[in-house]
């Protein structure tokens, strides 16, 4: 899990929030915020709980964290995460690291303005 995903989960733990609010309050670029929301929703850690209209008439989705507790283990040279959901269900994650890592690398490249030379991108 990366910093943006963790911030989103914590911010949505008590009260549902929408992506624009999360982006502004947590200082997360809006595109990165939507990507994290998608990954967290796919993993079952974030759930859309309400749809609303803004004063400008735009539709927004409010998200609520489904995470109650998180445990990090270092076993056999590998990190593993165990999530306890608000429903009481336990989920172990190990395979999601690669997907989230790819998102982090993509964000770093965008923050650099896409000015990385082709050789740097390949490494």
Describe the SSE topology:
Elements: H1 3-11, E1 17-18, H2 19-26, H3 30-42, E2 46-53, E3 59-65, E4 67-75, E5 78-85, E6 90-93, H4 96-111, H5 118-122
Antiparallel strand pairs: 1-3, 2-3, 4-5, 5-6
Helix pairs in contact: 1-3, 2-3, 3-4
Q: What would the keywords be for this entry?
A:
single chain, 123 residues, alpha+beta, Arc Repressor Mutant, subunit A, three-stranded antiparallel β-sheet, 5 helices, 31% strand, elongated, disordered C terminus
Short description:
The chain has 123 residues and is an alpha+beta fold.
Walk me through this protein's architecture.
This protein is α+β, with helices and mostly antiparallel strands. It has a single domain, classed as Orthogonal Bundle (Arc Repressor Mutant, subunit A). 41% of the residues lie in helices and 31% in strands. The chain contains 5 helices and 6 strands. The protein has helices spanning 3-11, 19-26, 30-42, 96-111, 118-122, and strands spanning 17-18, 46-53, 59-65, 67-75, 78-85, 90-93. A 3-stranded antiparallel β-sheet has the order 1-3-2. The protein has a 3-stranded antiparallel β-sheet with strand order 4-5-6, with no helix packed on it. A hairpin with a 2-residue loop joins strand 4 (67-75) and strand 5 (78-85). Helix 1 packs across helix 3. The chain is elongated. It starts with a helix and ends with a helix. Residues 96-105 and 112-123 have low confidence and may be disordered.
């Amino acid at each position: 899990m990366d910093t943006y995903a963790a911030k989103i989960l914590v911010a949505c733990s008590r009260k549902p929030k929408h992506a624009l609010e999360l982006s502004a309050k947590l200082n997360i670029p809006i595109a990165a915020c939507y990507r994290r929301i998608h990954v967290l929703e796919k993993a079952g850690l974030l759930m859309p709980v309400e749809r609303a209209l803004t004063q400008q008439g735009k539709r927004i989705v409010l998200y609520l964290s489904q995470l109650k507790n998180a445990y990090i283990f270092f076993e056999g040279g590998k990190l593993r995460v165990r999530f306890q959901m608000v429903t009481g269900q336990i989920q172990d994650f190990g395979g999601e690291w690669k997907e989230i890592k790819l998102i982090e690398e993509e964000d770093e490249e965008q923050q650099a303005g896409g000015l990385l030379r082709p050789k740097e991108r390949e490494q």
